Amino acid sequence: MQQQRNLTMLTDLYELTMMYGYYKHGMQDKEVVFDLFFRKSAGQSVYGIAAGLEQIISYIENLHFADEDIEYLRTLNLFDEEFFTLLKGIKFTGEIYAMQEGEIAFPGEPLLRVKAPILQAQLIETAMLNIVNHQTLIATKASRVVYAAQGDGILEFGLRRAQGPDAGIYGARAAIIGGCIGTSNVLTGQMFDISVKGTHAHSWVMTFPTELDSFRAYAKVFPDSCLLLVDTYDTLRSGVPNAITVFNELKENGHKPVGIRLDSGDLAYLSKKARIMLDKAGFEDVKIFASNDLDEHLIWDLKAQGAKIDVWGVGTSLITSRDNPALGGVYKLVSEFDKDGNEIPKIKISENPIKVTTPGYKKVYRLYNKDTNKALADYITLDDEVVDDSKPLTIFDPHATWKRMTLTNYYAKELLHPIFIDGKCVYKKPTLKEIAEYSKQGIASLWNEYKRLSNPHVYKVDLSHKLYNTKQKLLSQINEETSK
């Protein structure tokens, strides 16, 4: 269940002023190509996990200016009535190619490629960046947390700390794409058919005369899903012993308790002691859940210390990506077409090398080792190029061209898929569970060296010879023009 929302006005003003300028100069029918990509991965990660495409599709399908939108724009005193007439009829008629949600993505390669009349292509920039930047950021953060847990389950618990309802809803969705097994967010569960998890708060325990009374009351209501929070007063002297008492009562009545949750204190020490107590009482299958301001680094350290925790609830640090709360995705013009349909590649130059764009109407391949199915490198080409993986392929580092590698035992997979053609959605949207499984397979295709939490190895993203030469030619032409 998802509600259709008209987000057409979710845009920066300069998109509209540029659209108006193009219109006044008679350029509204010019066909252009934009790439959406990020220059640097979030935090210390070398990769990102593409997310947000489903919401992009909904946004594009519902793109239109309502009467109240036009009325508001009139109050800005920037545009004329002819332009408003044009806006009233605007809809997306172009094409969008994109990486599937859950795809592993690397800096500099297009997550989305838009080809459309310039007014349409310009209008959708802000909203698409808003959607993709946020969900890709959270999915990537979640994947790092999942990696740190080394096979343990991760639950997303961050709704109350998210920056608003949308960040909570779609952040939880992205966390599932990144590998979380469930969320506390009931609305996200309803909207996307995913598992919702949770137990009770400390206030439940404090409401009853004693901790044992509160545990018994909870077990009476939820005998087959009994998970008790044991750290309200004293974890080892009262919490765990009282939980065991209630678990024995459940067992005598034919019910199987689920577990205990730790939310404070030294989680390594407490979990190890609690595990001994539970096992001694005959509850080897009862799981230990933990929360308490966790992130991937703390989970990694707790695992190294031998913490006996089975499932981790991660909130603030995940839903906000607290250590790196924004992904710097950008949307750049890379080509335009003249009246005869001839492509004219475009490039942006900067004194900062990372901001120099890669021109042209492009596609992206991922190259895999045939024996291991591990990813070897990504290869960006112009759209008319085809990788023949039956033949050797020599790739090179576009920033250090002497670094070369010839691949023989490999296969190639295209990463950009048609989403919209002639303004019509041609993509069959997978379920969130299917996206999460696809993401899991993608993460498995990376060597652990690329997944390290600190100082990961840099993954190869190379340009084809033809694309590299196109870029160098444009750079040379601009240098000649500016030096005159």
Keywords:
484 residues, alpha/beta, nicotinate phosphoribosyltransferase, TIM Barrel, 2 domains, seven-stranded antiparallel sheet, six-stranded parallel sheet, 16 helices, 21 strands, 20% strand, globular
- Beta content: 15-25%
Q: Give the helix level as a range of percent.
A: 25-40%
CATH class of the largest domain: Alpha Beta
CATH 4th-level superfamily of the largest domain: nicotinate phosphoribosyltransferase
How far is the N terminus from the C terminus?
60 Å
Q: Per CATH, what is the topology of the largest domain?
A: nicotinate phosphoribosyltransferase
> What is the gyration radius calculated from CA atoms?
26 Å
For the largest sheet, list the strands in their spatial order. Answer: 13-12-1-5-3-19-20
Give me the count of strands: 21
- CATH-derived architecture of the largest domain: Alpha-Beta Barrel
Q: What average pLDDT do the residues reach? A: 97
Helix-and-strand structural type:
alpha/beta
* Overall shape: globular
Low-pLDDT stretches? none
Number of helices: 16
Architecture overview:
With 484 residues, this protein is of the alpha/beta class. The chain folds into 2 domains: 13-138 and 325-482, Alpha-Beta Barrel (nicotinate phosphoribosyltransferase); 141-319, Aldolase class I (TIM Barrel). Helices cover 37% and strands 20% of the residues. The chain has a 7-stranded antiparallel beta sheet with strand order 13-12-1-5-3-19-20. The chain has a 6-stranded parallel beta sheet with strand order 7-6-11-10-9-8. Strand 9, helix 12 (267-280) and strand 10 (287-290) form a beta-alpha-beta unit. It is globular and about 85 Å long. 41% of the residues are buried. The model has no long low-confidence stretch (mean pLDDT 97).
